[in-house]
Write the structure tokens for this entry.
Amino acid sequence: MAQPFRFRVNQHGPAGSPVRETFEPAAPKPGWVRLELRAMALNHLDLWTTVGLPGYPLPLPVTPGCDGAGVLDAVGEGTALPPGVEAGGSVMIAPGLSCGLCPACLRGDDMLCPTYGVLGHVADGTAATHVLVPAANLLPIPGNWSFEQAAAFPLVFLTAWEMLVHKARLCPGETVLVWGGGSGVGSAAIQLVKALGGSAIAVVGNDEKAMKCWDLGAEHVIVRGDLKALPGKVRDLTGKRGVDVVFEHTGALTWGASLAACARGGRIVTCGATTGRETTFDLRALFAKQLQVLGSYMGRREHLWTLLSLVQKNPTNPPFRPVIDRVFDLGDYPEAQRHLERGQGFGKVVCRV
Ligand SMILES: [Zn+2]
């Protein structure tokens, strides 16, 4: 095999600025394993890791990349492996890292662990030929999925599942407004809403993306246009009620429309702020309509096993699958970051190793 390499954020800079370097992959310590990666997928966290987050200093240098799939090529001494995973086998990675010892971890809420962080953000990630992860973060690859599909799955589906099922507590028959239906997390949410018996109203930037949202099972699609007009369009589609749940990850630009689009008693669940992190709003909208605002970040690692079991029930025709926008070579990871930042694609941006 060619010389192992990885991309490094040595100092924060614009999207695409991580630097390629060769390295000697370390042996895994007890409890950990080493993967020879075959594919990795990008997330907005790759961009935040690269650009830097005001008020959240990251340990640098770091290799970005939260999602990955590959072959298990070394196992730390005395390390047990999860069910369905064997040395030399194909695996995908659960991206959340936690201590495994604190009360939150012991009750399964690993994303509430005081030390919780995401691979590629707080530890060296998957923009590399090799990565070290705890054995507890391995999952078998379902059905006949490719490494690219496996890499594109964990972070966005875990995030969307946590938001819809455990934060917003979506019930069958309810309506969900999904911002950014063409994004990785948005395309996951549209499919999960349908699988859970709800109706998704997807918001996208153009007609081409709208067609793809229909294909994923959206009940209605709104091409964004003027944001001030959007709550009216949502009311027209919901018999003047508004939606039960707003699936937010876009932030400042869309927040006012999210509040206005909610039915009485609606829930706004948010996992991101890609258009800006600060906003103001009229508190009267919150209490008069009896709304709930719910923050969400990643999800229980356990629930990746739930999602996996739903796929494995019908691997040839699963209720949801990752949507891949474009596959780059790992050597072109900086260009893949710039492509993600432009936001023109539909679904996940993946690099093949
Ligand atoms: Zn913990």
Notes: The longest strand covers residues 32-41. The chain has two domains: 5-153+322-352, 158-295. Residues 98-99, 101-102, 104-105, 113, 115 surround zinc ion (CB under 6 Å).
